[in-house]
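Quality-control log, excerpt.
Job 1 of 2 completed; input and output follow.
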Amino acid sequence: MAATTMEQLVSLCKRRGFIFQNADIYGGQQGVYDYGPLGVELKNNLKAAWWRAMVYERDDVEGLDAAILTNRKVLKYSGHEDTFSDPMVDCKKCKGRFRADHIKDGKCPNCGASDLTEPRPFNLMFKTQVGPVESAENIGYLRPETAQAIFTQFKNVVDSTSRKLPFGIAQIGKSFRNEITPRNFIFRVREFEQAELEYFVFPGDDEKWHEIWKNERINWWLEQGLSMENIHIYTTPSDDLAHYAKACYDIEYRFPHGMEELEGIANRRDYDLGNHTKAQEEFELEAHCHQNPDSTTKLCIRDDESGKWIVPFVIEPSMGIDRGVLALLTEAYTEEDLGDGNSRVVLKLKKHLAPIKVAIIPLKKNSEEIMAKCHELKNKLMKLGIGRVQLENTGNIGKAYRRHDEVGTPLCLTVDFETIENKPETVTIRDRDTMEQIRVSTDELPAYLREYFL
């Protein structure tokens, strides 16, 4: 089977309402995308699956939903103001701006000219003013990552939950990076969503937990439908690590544009808590942690065995939700030859991720009896809690099947004249992947769907 191309995915996403270019009627806004009716369902289902695995199914993780606007001091002591930058070059001929590490053979990617400026650092954070007066004291930022609020709220979470090491704090939310060259559809954008876990462990246990979380996250992605043949684990060289990291694994995925990072699992050591904490001389911190005269709180936890206060090390699995959506679409997109010159596009998403779980299709849309039964069944099935049930009232059952194959709907339920005339009532259920059809009694339908989805 031929590899899925980005052109196929972009076409599908616009045609079927998954993802649209932001401000499209004004020519679009580079690096910003909007999720359409089906895209928001897929995205929410992916987030729900992550939250369920990270928070609900574990006994050692709490959740958080922190603000996007970030106090400047947070990003000062986290190191982002000084280090969160990419090298940028300008083309003197076409005036284009590019990341220096994306330049090949010293030539402009846009016009091919070699007349480029020397690389200079470009800070990726979006700066804003908080309050009515513009001044240095009122500078704030749109957060470049969701992690920092977890660190600054560490003590509040510990105090309110009485957590002991090891434990984690999870968060899903928007982040913002002023990318020099957004590219590859929703892979690299300026506004994106992250799902991050900060897992706090005893110093000395960090390397063990780093390995544990690497394996946990690989297995989770396999459960979402990605195949191991499209996954590669990259170990970041020590000279290429982020300023906060002791070590980092990248779970890379074979996207249409190549093998690139889907999720990072970083050992952030005690960098963040150490730099945000008050009176650091009381703790045994690594040399990279500096005195913080602005913090009012000791971000530490008491070891029950020794009675000492310690600053935990942190393991951070951090995934991009948008990249996750792109990986799922890439893996699921399938073109099948049905013979006799016929073919179909089918999105073979895992059923818990599918935007629409069941499509109810009337054999004849102008029949009052059939339509009344369709509405009755939809109201009945929506109460099952299986997800979105959609009434597909197009009047062409063949086209309806093809549309729902293309958007990944696992089951299509057809209401026909036999449903109305026969006792007991029965409907036809068609499976997306096999295209096989069976008749099921409407009385047995709720139990059938519960077993299928739940």
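Job 2 of 2 completed; input and output follow.
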Amino acid sequence: MIISVINEIFKESYIGSELIEFHSNGHFIDQQDVEDKERITDTNFISYGKKKKKYHLECESSLSDGRMTIRFL
């Protein structure tokens, strides 16, 4: 499905046979007196087609009470 997302957002023309290599996409939230939680906030990957291209997609991350903690890093 990431191929469709890349094609739409970045106006690429991948056909689906390209190799996609994903990389680390999270960080840990350090909380006092509570176990740390991992929060997934972005996606880092490389596509190997005619050319090697690196991509980084980010998303919004909010607390359970609705307050936004991270929009873009």
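Post-run check on job 2. The longest strand covers residues 42-48.
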